[in-house]
Design a protein that fits this description.
Layout: H1 19-38, E1 58-62, E2 66-72, E3 81-86, E4 89-96, E5 115-122, E6 133-137, E7 140-146
Antiparallel strand pairs: 1-2, 2-7, 3-4, 4-5, 6-7
């Protein structure tokens, strides 16, 4: 029996979404589809998750001042996590080390994933790289990326005569 998981997306509250944001969402969906379909051919056998590589869950939020990324990385140490920003892409990568296996008895089930992973997210606008802040607590990595001043919404005052 096969089960398909579909990523939930919050419905758009504002129908005036820019075409570039829609293209970014479409690109992310196509990347995800190719990762699910062909990722298993490029991963090592220790990185299998129902036929594909280990891919930690990621959420991306936006407000008027910043983007916030939350990434689930349970059981990892902060030294095992790498974060980089290059040409509008935030990349979170690392490696979950193999724990000591029991030398006696049989393994009946193993569902915890190990090995290398990498997630790259295309950011919809420029960020201020000098003010990026990353914290890691209780297995959740939180990266706050303040928007560059030119990317923030501007309030324009209209003078009435």
């Amino acid at each position: 029996m096969y089960m398909t998981l579909t990523r939930w997306q919050k419905p758009e509250q504002n129908w005036t979404v820019t075409p570039f944001r829609r293209m970014t969402t479409l690109r992310d969906e196509i990347d995800h589809m190719f990762d699910r379909a062909f990722g298993q051919f490029f991963e090592s056998p220790t990185q299998t998750q129902l036929g594909s590589g280990w891919v930690p869950g990621v959420d991306l939020y936006e407000d008027k001042d910043a983007f916030t990324v939350k990434c689930e990385l349970p059981g990892m140490k902060k030294e095992e996590i790498d974060i980089s920003l290059h040409e509008g892409f935030l990349t979170i990568s690392g490696e979950r080390k193999h724990e000591e296996q029991k030398t006696t008895g049989e393994v009946y089930r193993t569902e915890r994933y190990e090995g290398r992973f990498s997630r790259s997210l295309s950011l919809p606008s420029k960020v201020n790289a000098e003010k990026i802040n990353a914290t890691y607590k209780d297995g959740v990595l939180t990266v706050v990326l303040p928007k560059a001043e030119e990317a923030k919404p501007k309030q324009i005052q209209v003078n009435i005569k």
